[in-house]
TrEMBL record:
<dbReference type="Pfam" id="PF13302">
    <property type="entry name" value="Acetyltransf_3"/>
</dbReference>
<feature type="domain" description="N-acetyltransferase">
    <location>
        <begin position="4"/>
        <end position="174"/>
    </location>
</feature>
<dbReference type="InterPro" id="IPR000182">
    <property type="entry name" value="GNAT_dom"/>
</dbReference>
<dbReference type="InterPro" id="IPR016181">
    <property type="entry name" value="Acyl_CoA_acyltransferase"/>
</dbReference>
<protein>
    <submittedName>
        <fullName>Acetyltransferase</fullName>
    </submittedName>
</protein>
Amino acid sequence: MNRLKLVLPTPEYKDEVMDYKREFIENGDSIDGSAGLKNADTFEEWYSALCDNSKEETVREGLVPSTTYMAISIENGRLIGMIDIRHRLNDFLLNYGGNIGYSIRKSERQKGYATEMLGLALKECERINIKRVLITCDKDNIASAKTMVNNGAKLENEIPEGNRITQRYWIELD
């Protein structure tokens, strides 16, 4: 499948990013892998934080350096999903968040995009020398678990977190 490309966000994508956020809010969905887009009042606020958090020297307190990509349709330029690669793990990410978080807009789900997007992100992980990738999901998120397994993930364990269970999957990269 070559339907998507990963693109770094830039101000030129402001309208697409804000439309992506709107769709998630309207559907009451969690915007995972979007570098805090849900909590940003404006594109500029979000983009500033995204840029700060992309470098060790400027990462905001409590976070780790990460690179956030937009998954763009090669065919029509539509923003399909977002995926965030965390360059290292802190204690919270080791237990609950992992190296990668991602989301697909509701109108584009169940089309195989998540599997393709994660595969592209794993190539980026290799490029920045992350050899072992941790990805997590809620136990009831069957689609996300399938996406990870389709990319070679192996379930290590399950961790209770309040009233939910987090599944922890590892992918070994060559």
